[in-house]
UniProtKB/TrEMBL annotation, chains A, B:
Xref: PANTHER family: ENOYL REDUCTASE (ER) DOMAIN-CONTAINING PROTEIN (PTHR43205:SF64), PROSTAGLANDIN REDUCTASE (PTHR43205)
Keywords, in A-Z order: Oxidoreductase
Name of protein: Enoyl reductase (ER) domain-containing protein
Enoyl reductase (ER) domain sequence ranges: 44-340
Record-linked SUPFAM superfamilies: GroES-like, NAD(P)-binding Rossmann-fold domains
Source organism per UniProt: Solanum verrucosum
Record keyword Disulfide bond present: no
Residue runs in coiled coils: none
Length: 345, 345
């Protein structure tokens, strides 16, 4: 590729964020990018197609020290998972025209290294490409690992999933149903509750915002208790779940979205239940488990093509709408996996 | 044994307890007991020698519904673990003169069934009999199971034990040292801290009451973090520990004594660390693990006789002092395992 300076629209984080993030914390900016590849480098030049909005990104908007993720750099583009097309590559594992997913910038073009970006080559293109930000990407692997590796599920067990219509939750519920579990999900709107029951085949679902007493709500759906809780929200819901767990229950701690924008997190009061009910509560990060990704693809792609697993996405059109999409996540405005489409190809 | 009516001193729970228990919640009373054995029954008549004061007994002083333990019955004697001598037995597994340990009454004589009382026959008498309320009984098994089965410990790991000079903690620390771990304990007096360092061979120990900042205190003793936390106290200490855990750490949840007398338990705020550090936090009850008791005895008795494991008891003399001993437990007044001696034999 000859030296080429291109216009490169970007979403810049203006400053560290406190409380709920706002669109005004980010800026849509026109910059230039030199797409020529520096000699002696090992970079891959990407044209970004789909960007992923994920709850963990809230942490990266804060000033962090010694955390499991790095803060975004104010003044620079936000980074996150995305699907992209390779425009040029010095890395011999990638070639012009390849489709990939991994960490990329919130911009039209990014220059990355395959290692830092943890780039995966996309082999199967007979599925929507955006799925590689969701069911075939990080959230899919999160659901797979969290449910099968952390929850130790057995046929016939009772499973509760919070934030159940989200990128991860909708899959956990479907995996649990495939295994023959009884599955209930919670979500924050009637539309999402309908999705859970009608589209994702959950046995039951409820709108947590309409329940005055979460302990009683869970008791209603789980009169004999919960074997497995897939935790996406934290706070009051976790406290209510603890009181409703069965003996020897398991809690996979995947996320705590209800707490991310609070200056001081809510206290959890019912941890004594861990003892009386011999509960195992275990946190996990999908990044420890990517060696299972080929095995996961082998399982999930036929399920998608056979229509046994469905996936709902909420796709915002255009990079300029990415800030709104990301902010909306923390108000539960997305219905299904929140994606931003930057370019069709 | 001919029909015989004996004077039977008892400790009666007067009423359900709220807040911290007081001596006046219990009553020392003279009753009579018929020591003759009902025909057709399967009972064992016991003369109680040692009674055990254990933190879990606080729950039983409250009105409970659907808990893992049953409430005591107001107007009746308190029950708990104890060592006793068999005066008479219809159960063919026990004979007059046998020494046993299991659930018995806080009284001089009790009539029990072996099943309900989960009676174990004492075979090795070349150790202090009171040890069967502690290191050779329920607390010993609790330490053994909690450490070896729940913590998945490895040589060289860092271990923190709270309430470390108590019936369970002092053993967990010694087990961890035997395995080649670095062990730190917390306790509530200088005397206990000295015990931990000088008697139980902990690497370090500190008085949590003298630390303004528990997070900083733990950081001081664990600059590289905690692999294993043996949780006996709950509340603020748990919150501080969560911030100091290492990646892939384990928390065995054995007890939460700091919370038992609170009307509303303290909230725990740092559970998000479970995710970022991939921590497994698991509660357990010793009662699920008694099949390991013979294996435990085989391991521990030679260690006691060889002087490799030591055990400190705090023995209150006389049944009349049992209420004070039990109440003292919740103020940390006991130094080591709290026992009540009812009779030498």
């Amino acid at each position: 590729m000859a030296e080429e300076v291109m216009n490169n629209k970007q979403i810049i984080l203006k400053h560290y964020v406190e409380d709920y993030p706002k669109e005004s914390d980010m800026e849509f900016k026109n910059n230039n990018i030199k797409l020529n590849v520096p000699e002696g480098s090992n970079v891959v030049v990407l044209k970004n197609l789909y960007l992923s909005c994920d709850p963990y990104m809230r942490s990266r908007m804060s000033k962090l020290e010694g955390s499991y993720v790095q803060s975004f750099t104010p003044g620079s583009p936000i980074t996150g998972c995305g699907v992209a097309k390779v425009l040029e590559s010095v890395d011999s594992n990638f070639q012009e025209g390849d489709l990939v997913w991994g960490m990329t910038g919130w911009e039209e073009y990014s220059i990355v290294t395959a290692t830092q970006s943890a780039l995966f080559k996309i082999h199967d293109k007979n599925v929507p490409l955006s799925y590689y930000t969701g069911i075939l990407g990080m959230p899919g692997m999160t659901a797979y690992v969290g449910f099968y590796e952390i929850c130790s599920p057995k046929k016939g067990e009772t499973v509760f999933v919070s934030a159940a219509s989200g990128a991860v939750g909708q899959l956990v519920g479907q995996f649990a149903k495939m295994l023959g579990c009884y599955v209930v999900g919670s979500a924050g709107t009637k539309e999402k509750v309908d999705l859970l029951k009608n589209k994702f085949d959950f046995d039951e679902a409820f709108n947590y915002k309409e329940e005055k007493d979460l302990v009683a709500a869970l008791k209603r759906y789980f009169p004999n208790g919960i074997d497995i809780y897939f935790e996406n929200v934290g706070g009051k819901m976790l406290d209510a779940v603890l009181l409703n767990m069965k003996l020897c229950g398991r809690i996979a701690v995947c996320g705590m979205i209800s707490q991310y924008n609070l200056e001081k997190t809510e206290g959890v009061h019912n941890l004594f239940c861990l003892i009386t009910k011999r509960i195992r509560m275990e946190g996990f990060l999908v990044s420890d488990h990517y060696h299972l990704y080929p095995k996961y693809l082998e399982m999930i792609i036929p399920q998608i093509k056979g229509g046994n697993v469905v996936y709902v996405e909420d796709i915002a059109e255009g990079l300029e709408n990415a800030p709104k999409a990301l902010v909306g996540l923390f108000y539960g405005r997305n219905v299904g996996k929140q994606v931003v489409k930057v370019s069709r190809e």
